[in-house]
Amino acid sequence: MKDGTGMVGRIMFAWWKGNSLDCNCKKWRLFADLLNDGAMILELCVPHVTHLTTEILCLSTAMKSVVGIAGGATRASITNHQAIKGNMAEISAKDGSQETLVNLVASFTGIFLINYFTDITAQWVVTFLLIILHLYSNYQAVTALIFKNLNDLRMTLVLKSYLIVNAVLGPERINKMESVLLGFGTDVEKFCGFKIILGRPLRKTLIYYNYDELRSLTEVYKNRKYLLVPDLKRRAIFVTFEKGETPQDVIAGYYNAVLLGLATCIYNRVNLDIYSKRQLHQSTPVTRLNTFMKTNHNSLDVPNNIPPHLLLTFNDFVDQETDMFFTALQVNGWKTDSHSLYLDEWRAQWRDFDKRSL
Asked: Number of C-alpha atoms within 13 angstroms, CB side, residue 93?
């Protein structure tokens, strides 16, 4: 039962969270360490609750199976990040050698501590102190990583600064601001009014569009590698890509979706915090967007999407803003030839809409 629980746990976790391990490498690395320590504490409790031995061992094994997947996958991502000369094999070998040395020293230290602290209470105190030290050390190690490609959280932090003050913060500054705890961090929805969803199926969203609306929408994006489909009911903008998209297409699609979310809020007279924080006497993407949209507002009492004829003009505005955004990214040391944004696998074809179906 213990081994079977571990195997099932590995399969289920890989299916459930496999796509997000690269996107949130730091968070899953720290979470794996926390979960591993929790599993060890459970196993140490077995002698005190022998009637629950099977249940505890099954639970701890399931936790360790998650640690194996999350820890191994994030280690590969971190090794790739550290191999700046393309020497992944060398970095991996030295990392394994370093880990072996640490385990060897820890084994001798553990033997000494067990013989020195014979009282059970003292042993538990030492155990928890070492666990706290271990987690603190891993926290410091994770926060020391400086990734130069964009994931969802780093992209959100970069955009929040860029939209308000027209300045892109560098990788070192953004990585220090990035949360390494699962469930924490700035959400793009808070300042653009919409969730940005990349590469997800559109079937639940397209039911809100009739044929003419969908045809007009595909006409707007016929010369782009991505298609933006707003869903006002779920407050989300779906970004779907053509097969063979580049990292630059993904970053551009994400930025375009954020600008579309802001423009849709302005169009429907929805107030956002980012408007009140902008620098009124400085040219920023938000002030430029407000200037562009100042004569275009929804005349109806119900929220509505931006009409296609305005989207065509809006795309010209977006092209100029995207060029400036990419220039700012490259000048400040960000890599745009790769990304870690959460991107699902669904792709669409919308060119020649009358001849094809999405």
From this structure: 4
